[in-house]
Amino acid sequence: MTWQVGIGRRVITPRTPVWLAGYGTRRVPEGTIHDLWATTSG
User: Fold this and answer.
1) CA–CA separation, 39 vs 8, rounded Å?
2) Best CA proximity match to 13, nearest among 34, 41, 27, 29
């Protein structure tokens, strides 16, 4: 029996400014400080 494992990681930060849900019009998108990452294993 052999095991095969894979992992992945990818940046999912939008390239254009996106309004965040729950903030309404109180705050205009200003850019990014940190990238958003999606990580998976299986």
Assistant:
1) 6
2) 34
CA distance 32 to 11: 13
- Contact present, 35 and 11 (Cβ < 8 Å): yes
Q: Return d(Cα 21, Cα 27) in angstroms, integer.
A: 11
pTM for the model stands at 0.58
Tens digits of per-residue pLDDT, 25-39?
777 778 888 999 999
CA atoms 24, 34, 10, 16: torsion sign: positive
